[in-house]
Amino acid sequence: MKKLLVVLNPIAGARRKINLEQKFKEWMGSSLEVYFQYWESADFDITNAIKDRIKDDGFDIVAAAGGDGTVNRTARALVNTNTVFAILPLGSGNGLARHFKIPMNLEKAAGVITKGKTIKMDTCQINDENFFCTAGTGFDAHIGNLFANSGKRGFSTYTKIVGREFKNYKPSSYRIVADGKEININAFLVTVANANQYGNNVYISPDADITDGLMNVVVLKPFGLIHAPALVGRMFLKNMHKAALVETFKAKQVDVFRNDSGPIHFDGEPFIMGNELKFRMFPNSLQIIVP
After folding, report:
1. Looking only at Cα atoms, what is the longest distance across the chain?
2. CA–CA separation, 123 vs 81, rounded Å?
3. Is the CB of residue 146 less than 8 Å from the CB of residue 139?
4. CB of 202 within 8 A of CB of 236?
5. In this structure, which topology does domain 129-282 adopt according to CATH?
6. What is the share, in percent, of the chain residues with pLDDT greater than 70?
7. Most buried residue, 10, 22, 146, 157, by most Cβ within 10 Å?
8. Is residue 83 within 8 Å of residue 76, measured between CB atoms?
9. If one looks up domain 2-115 in CATH, what number appears?
């Protein structure tokens, strides 16, 4: 019988108000030996804890039970290994899970682990930090940084910050070198996508293929408030890449140069980096169970 380690974010689990350990064993225990690893706190090195558990106990599958942060920290422990990754979505965005059409219903997601297929997906890095969905700089990174430091969570807080910041935000100049081709452009945001969406079915790069060995670069040019509703609509309707204000291209290696250091985002998490952003692609470097 194969061994499964479920990496559990207690905060995400608490929102569900159910005994997740009991439920996961109930749903998967007949076909897998199920064990658990808790992400104990924000400063706990969960990635190395997972590596240690695999080394000591030889798990065949490791599943991230949490949001995009748990998915990121779990998956980075499994890149270029023989251990298979799986997702039990407990977050709000669930970008990678939604890309693969993994059910948001936990019992059905558990069924994917026992009955799904294993494929190899591409992974990426931004300045040596692993990401699996999207990463980038610009307005979305600016908002993500403010939201993370606001002290309040929730969609209403997020929308208030967006509304407040949009009218004052100034697009930046970027020099982008993609597989040796250079462009200089003024942009509202620059996103490098491995998967097709940020999360919540917000499709920033609808035509992204997570197994093609290429990153999708999405450049949104400056626009006025009058264009905002149509652009938001395009992200939900999966045709953002067809907008006149959007320039897209594919590349294996992308360097983005900006005037100053500042916020970036990767897999929904804000971070502060310098003025040079190096994006790198690693084809077929992570095994994952999908429907």
Report:
1. 58
2. 13
3. no
4. yes
5. Tumour Suppressor Smad4 (2.60.200)
6. 96
7. 146
8. no
9. 3.40.50.10330
Q: For 282, what's the count of Cα atoms within 13 Å in the CB-facing half-sphere? A: 16
**Tell me: the pLDDT tens digits for 59-104?**
999 999 999 999 999 999 999 999 999 999 998 889 999 999 999 9
Task: Quote the CA–CA distance of 249 and 216 in Å, as a whole number.
Answer: 6
As given in the structure block, the two tokens for residue 158 are 């997020």
* Token pair in block for residue 273: 């980096």
Q: Chain-centre distance of CA 92, in angstroms?
A: 12
Distance of CA 144 to the CA centre of its chain: 13
pTM listed for this prediction: 0.92
The strands making up 262-266's β-sheet, listed across from edge to edge, are 246-251, 215-220, 189-193, 134-138, 262-266, 269-273
Q: Rounded CA gap, 257 and 249, in Å? A: 17
Residue with tokens 């807080």: 157
Domain with CATH 3.40.50.10330 in the chain: 2-115
Q: DSSP string spanning 136-204?
A: EEEHHHHHHHHHHTSS--SHHHHHHHHHHHHTT---EEEEEEETTEEEEEEESEEEEESSS-SBTTB-S
H/E element holding 113?
helix 106-115
pLDDT in tens, 139-155: 999 988 888 887 776 66
The CA distances from residue 153 to 92, 146, 158, in Å, are: 11, 11, 8
Tokens, residue 171: 């697009």
User: Do 240 and 246 meet the contact criterion of CB atoms below 8 Å apart?
Assistant: yes
